[in-house]
Amino acid sequence: MSRIRTAIFPVAGLGTRFLPATKAVPKEMLPVVDKPLIQYAVDEALAAGIETMVFVTGRGKNAIEDYFDIAYELEDTLHSRAKHDILATLEGTRLAPGNVAFVRQQEPLGLGHAVWCARHFIENSPFAVLLADELLWNPESPCLKQMAETQERKGGNVIAVLEVPHEHTNRYGIVSPGTIEGAVTEVRGLVEKPKPADAPSRLAAVGRYILQPEIMALLGTQEKGAGGEIQLTDAMAKLIGVQPFHAQTFVGQRHDCGDKAGYVQANISLALERADLGPVIREYLKTV
Ligand code: G1P
């Protein structure tokens, strides 16, 4: 079975929900405590053994390219001042030369279209897709690693899921479930953003995918789906029955950082876990 070598990060979205903050800063660069959202997603891919990172960007997203580059003046200044501890915080921003690529999605035609824009980078092998605004937090057993282990056993495609409230099914790709084995559920169907009354379950896709390369051809010919966009969910649905397809229930904390409340909660929750910040924030929270 071929190992998953490439991760695709769709980062072209406009981030309108976070205006005015995202007027001049990509939403993927918003920090949770002291690391931008995109770094959490890249760290998760690295932890799953992935080497090549492909960012599907758009206008106004240059900060992401600069972030994953060497900041020569800054690093030189820190070196000359012997600020080695601060330099060490930049470690995760240095991706291996030649193993990072940026491709533009010129028009916002949907998540499926964004993934398809990266089709020439996947070398006809299984690949991962990570949506950076979903912060899936389990440092001991990162989500994509949990999924890669399942993919090795089951083959085919694996998506991460979590149960969401019934009234929220219209925000997510929803799974029609088959046989359940612990955290792994067979996927019998997938539907993008169904009304609660039409939802086949409460199992929602939460922004992590391991997909077979055949999906690219399906995305290439695809019509628009829910919301008038080319949907990844619709192309995945076409692979069900053709290839193995499973949903992995994520064990860990999910923070929906595409949502303001979720983003603020992520900051509080991750700060509380930190040895340097936890005690101060815990004390502060007692006072409010
Ligand atoms: C996208 C996907 C959806 C998935 C969600 C997870 O929707 O289309 O299937 O459940 O991400 O966050 P979006 O939130 O971009 O509308």
Largest sheet: 9 strands, mixed
Strands, total number: 13
Query: What is the radius of gyration computed over CA atoms, rounded to a whole number of angstroms?
Result: 19 Å
**What molecules are bound to this protein?**
1-O-phosphono-alpha-D-glucopyranose
Keywords:
Spore Coat Polysaccharide Biosynthesis Protein SpsA, Chain A, nine-stranded mixed beta sheet, binds 1-O-phosphono-alpha-D-glucopyranose
Write a structural description.
The protein has helices spanning 37-47, 62-67, 72-80, 84-88, 111-116, 143-154, 215-220, 232-239, 260-273, 278-286, and strands at 6-10, 31-32, 35-36, 52-57, 100-104, 127-130, 134-137, 157-163, 173-181, 184-192, 203-211, 245-249, 253-256. It is an alpha/beta fold and 288 residues long. The protein has one domain (6-285): Spore Coat Polysaccharide Biosynthesis Protein SpsA, Chain A (Alpha-Beta Complex), CATH 3.90.550. Helix 9 crosses helix 10. It is globular, with a radius of gyration of 19 Å. The mean pLDDT is 95. It binds 1-O-phosphono-alpha-D-glucopyranose (G1P). 1-O-phosphono-alpha-D-glucopyranose binds at residues 111, 131, 134, 172-173, 192, 204-207, 232-233, 258. The site of 1-O-phosphono-alpha-D-glucopyranose has 13 residues, from strand 11 and helix 8.
